[in-house]
Write a structure and sequence with these properties.
2 domains, 5% strand
């Protein structure tokens, strides 16, 4: 029985994560079916510049671009990006789509793989560092995957502080909550699970000449950095720390190989940012101020203080996993300060080492079992309930990024299959769905990947509302975008008469699909 318990812990982690990961999918598909609409594939709760689902639709757009061209381009701007990008998760989904498997089907398969990798990695990590204690392993896995910082649940449930403060606290808690990466941010979930596997593989490799273990460790390290570079930087810093702590000539080759494996994808991302205009723009757009000290103290402070009780002195002859356990949190915090592009992504995965330290601390303090489990419930259930309630409310809001009515779907399908070549001009936020549904680029659609997104989004909304100024101004604006096609979804049908009057001389063809409309513009 004792041998089965660790497997039972892993199985419980897989089942719990799968339920959490596919809860939004079931909810959104059911809601779309009830209103006779189609699910777009977006299933996240936070998006760029408030455009819900835009990040997930970006992943699907990359997959669509890979399916069509082998490499992905930025489809959220016109004429700025080449086909230069390949990433494993989007590549896998795109490959399945190219084989006729369907884009969303490929995405759901990748999500299922991410559930197995994240649950398996976390369970293996906790089993290794809490040997012989199945109850402690189960508690640690629960905390590693499902912890929502008390401040996040409290501040948002009770609506404490300003709206900006509440959002910052929510963002910090969301980044620490590993399970929520499965809501639309599958590459990050995969990356966290792969970090655990890479470090455990490295430990096996340095115990002796185990080439298979070292190959596994290097391959998972490379995938970790390729899928989500923030975790790749953290893993690289951990490996550097191991090199300093261990100082064993016999292990130098294995540690060097790990660093090379991490460095290759990071160098690739560096080349993209310097060599491709769209990637350079996105890197600039993602730069921003870090969270206020009050938010960091409220969200991370209590967890770090409690975890200190589980620390012990690190020795040079400790196993790799024990040393990595101590190095992981400082490395993640260093990544937060080193990388200016959406720095809070560095917090993803930090609960994996913190969970082990929390359980060790509770054991050291001889915390009674029932009290310990009450603490686990307090750190997980209220925040998960808040997120689930928030998603239910969001799914019922009718936001177009989650579901499309049949006329919009028909219009997009016509663009994908029959429209002449060229880019698309569409109103925000509907424009976010166009690339993944059609494979066409849009002039504006994503907060990070479209130049001057707020300004462009306002201009396009005014155009489709017939409020851009004189007809000559409207025509000059449309010509300047370089778009060949205009699409007005059902939510923007009210501006159709004014738009027709303004753009009349430019319009070569009009195709109607119920309340949706596609205009083909005359060539220059």
């Amino acid at each position: 029985m004792a041998r089965r318990l660790p497997s039972a812990v892993a199985a419980a982690a897989v089942l719990a994560l799968a339920a959490w990961a596919f809860f939004p999918v079931v909810l959104l598909v059911a809601h779309a079916s009830a209103i006779h609409a189609s699910w777009t594939g977006a299933d996240g709760l936070i998006g760029a510049d408030g455009v819900l689902g835009a990040d997930q639709l970006q992943y699907l757009a990359w997959a669509r671009s890979i399916a069509d061209h082998g490499l992905a381009a930025d489809l959220f701007t016109l004429g700025r990006s080449g086909h230069v990008y390949l990433e494993p998760a989007s590549g896998f989904a795109g490959g399945l789509a190219a084989l006729g498997g369907g884009l969303i089907t490929g995405y759901l398969i990748v999500k299922a793989i991410a559930v197995l990798v994240l649950a398996g990695g976390a369970a293996a990590w906790c089993r290794r560092l809490l040997p012989g204690r199945p109850g402690g392993q189960l508690a640690a896995v629960a905390l590693a995957l499902f912890t929502v910082t008390p401040a996040t649940a409290l501040v948002n449930w009770l609506q404490l502080g300003s709206a900006r403060f509440r959002f910052d606290v929510y963002l910090a808690g969301d980044e620490l909550l590993a399970a929520t990466k499965l809501w639309g941010y599958v590459p990050a979930a995969l990356s966290v699970g792969l970090m655990c596997i890479a470090l455990l593989g490295l430990e096996h490799a340095v115990r002796g000449p185990r080439r298979a273990a070292l190959s596994l460790a290097a391959a998972t390290a490379l995938l970790c950095a390729w899928l989500h570079p923030w975790q790749g930087i953290t893993l690289g810093l951990i490996v550097i720390g191991l090199s300093v702590l261990r100082r064993r000539r016999a292990e130098a080759g294995a540690l060097t190989l790990m660093l090379v494996a991490v460095a290759l994808p990071l160098a690739y991302y560096g080349l993209l940012e310097h060599g491709d205009a769209a990637w350079r723009m996105a890197a600039h757009n993602e730069q921003g101020p870090r969270l206020p000290a009050t938010v960091l103290l409220a969200c991370l402070g209590p967890l770090v203080v409690l975890a200190l009780a589980g620390l012990r002195r690190v020795r040079a002859d400790d196993p790799v996993a024990e040393q990595a356990l101590i190095l992981w949190v400082p490395a993640g915090l260093a990544t937060y300060w080193i990388n200016g592009a959406f720095a809070t992504h560095a917090f993803e995965g930090l609960m994996v080492p913190l969970a082990v330290l929390l359980v060790r601390g509770a054991t050291r303090m001889r915390l009674p079992g029932p009290l310990g489990w009450l603490c686990v419930l307090a750190l997980t259930v209220p925040g998960l309930a808040y997120d689930a309630r928030k998603f239910v409310r969001t799914s019922r809001s009718g936001l177009v990024q989650y579901a499309l009515p049949r006329p919009d779907v028909d219009a997009l399908r016509w663009i994908a299959d029959h429209a002449p070549p060229g880019g698309v001009l569409a109103p925000a936020p509907f424009a976010a769905v166009v690339p993944s549904q059609t494979g066409r680029a849009v002039w504006v659609g994503h907060g990070d990947w479209s130049p001057h997104y707020p300004v462009r989004a306002r201009q396009v909304d005014r155009l489709f509302a017939g409020q851009l100024g004189s007809p000559a101004s409207a025509r000059a604006f449309v010509r300047a975008t370089g778009a060949r096609l205009l699409i007005a979804d059902c939510d923007h049908v009210h501006g159709e008469p004014a738009l027709t009057r303004a753009l009349g001389p430019l319009i070569a063809q009009v195709h109607r699909f119920g309340c949706a409309r596609v205009d083909v513009l005359r060539g220059r």
